[in-house]
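One thing: can you check what follows?
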Amino acid sequence: MSSPLEIYSAFQQRLQSQDYAHLGEVVDLQGYTENCLGLTGWTTGFEIALQNFARNILAPFSDLEFRTQDVIEGGDAVTIRNRVEATHSGTFLGIPATGRRIAWDFVAMVHVNDGLLVGQWIQFDLWGIYQQLTSPIPEVPTTKSAEPALAWARSAR
């Protein structure tokens, strides 16, 4: 049996390569349930979820790059924090295309059962996206780190 992370990785590989014909190997296509907070609400059925993804992410953004930042895995679930960079090339959150290159984080809590992805709860940084699209001076997406380590973090070791 594959781990939740292996199943999610196979799912992402098929999505990104647009290999939709083989998604049923890793996704419960009929029973799949997800909630993309702030974008869709609860959705049942993978075909509807895929349409939502195309409308809400693929249509307004181009040149998408996903990078996994953190992974926490359990017996039947995996939580992943990803960093996305993309070009705003269509209307998103009511904002017409700006052509800006922006970046945001999202967290996905993924559930699996019997070797299939059965659902996700996804939280995008919608406020961060909105700020980048509407700020008077666009900033290049960066990742900031706390250097040097904060005193409270050092004390936790």
